[in-house]
# Entry
Amino acid sequence: MKYAVANWKMNMDLKDIQNWLQAFEKYSNDKAIMEKVILSPSHPYLYLTHQAGFKTAAQDVSLIDEGAHTGETGGFQLKNFCSYCIVGHSERQESFDVVLDKRDQCLKNGITPIVCFTETDNAINYYTQGVLLAWEDPSNISVNGVYRAKDPQEIRTNVNVIKATLPAGVELIYGGSINRQNIGELCMIIGLDGVLVGNASLDPQHFYEICKH
# Structure
């Protein structure tokens, strides 16, 4: 597994994140682990995870370049703290055009967009050079700590379908109730380059057990 993206969503405040980083510090000498980890906190804490030495991803980016747009955070600002950005997560329910525009804002600013999509036959429409594609199944995203993991065989089948539509070498990660119980089977799926982890990433020990694979 090449990527382990921790999407913290709107969870954890400053003290929680400091505690998480302190707890995870004991694994920081493991270069193989640190190479694959990408932390995605809420915008106020991007500086904190960046300064701690982690690869960092924003959870969103503005459609707008810059200017008088109160409450927006532009790609030209995010690039100071992160090299990745999650774009079009299914929870945001954004239109196809919006996702593409945000993808392009990231690329314009030298940020790798982690472009989320849900339909297996639609991946090619989100792809362009420089993106990391993330297939997610909204029906299998954990809710309030309850995991609804998908059958790994079904994931394997869908990964094959997706990869068949893409140019060779395009990287693909999967998101949807990833945890310590199913990560082993997911890592055996040829063509799957990593995972987008939600609830399980809030616990540093649980996340580490996922990253070991």
Notes: The beta strands are 3-7, 37-40, 55-58, 84-87, 112-117, 132-136, 172-175, 194-197. The first helix runs from residue 14 to 24.
